[in-house]
């Protein structure tokens, strides 16, 4: 499959008053395959599949647990269209700012030094958040993990959700070729508990990522074709899908001696709203958490003709 081949980007654009369930029930993929939505696991069901994952690597379940804690729902207000664009991302970095001006115009502490705040860097794809205007119109929801039809339970679950507000695009990979489709942007929150909690999750995630890479170095790369994607399909609660690599990765160019600028192809359940989701690829050379050099892959596009999905550009960093 060529990198120039067009697929369907999996954003969820909805009317401001349209609900997650409206979109979920109208999903074209579920009309074509009545079992499509059944291929997702809820966050709570991660424990149910942990035995399968343990057979591959003993630290894989705890790694995926922290990967899902760092996965966020992104909602971009598009006032010109009267719609909201929903996608997914993963937190790459957290910086606790003290004595610096709050950069979010809609925040009551904007340009005030009275409060410390957290600067979260979120990796996603360019067609979710690609410009500073889109970043400023973006809301980032942490821990939107559960959905329930009971309004009382739903209200209780939503109390656990924490929100940060976007303000700036740090980097995107679309200057020369828009199909590279990766970006990262920054958002801010004054919630001290959220800042510390996410910092802790991120540290554990990175530590286990290194351990997993070391374990997988003893396996021939490509023998285990496991793929795990964590996303917010249809802008709803977080879901986990398990699939496999289906085609050889596409190497676009070598940016340094030990870094491969590449894209992966796979089959796993995704829907509108899954664009930007983090991807775990078994045996993948460690991606790291830099910007241009060493950034991870995110889910980009679903190709309706081949039934393959493919990732954004990312950098395999062999260490």
Which SSEs are present, and which pair or pack?
Elements: E1 8-9, E2 12-15, H1 20-25, H2 28-32, E3 41-42, H3 50-56, H4 60-70, E4 71-78, E5 83-97, E6 117-124, H5 132-136, E7 138-142, H6 151-158, E8 162-172, E9 183-189, H7 192-216, E10 226-231, E11 239-256, E12 259-267, E13 279-281, E14 299-302, E15 309-311, E16 314-317
Antiparallel strand pairs: 1-14, 2-5, 3-11, 4-5, 4-7, 5-6, 6-9, 7-8, 8-9, 10-11, 10-13, 11-12, 12-15, 12-16, 14-15
Helix pairs in contact: 4-7
Assembly type of the chains comes to single chain
Q: Helical region count?
A: 7
Please identify the structural class as seen in this structure. Answer: alpha+beta
Q: Give the class-level CATH name.
A: Mainly Beta
Assess the beta-strand content as a share of residues.
Answer: 25-35%
Spans of at least 5 consecutive residues with low confidence: 1-5
Order of helices and strands: EEHHEHHEEEHEHEEHEEEEEEE
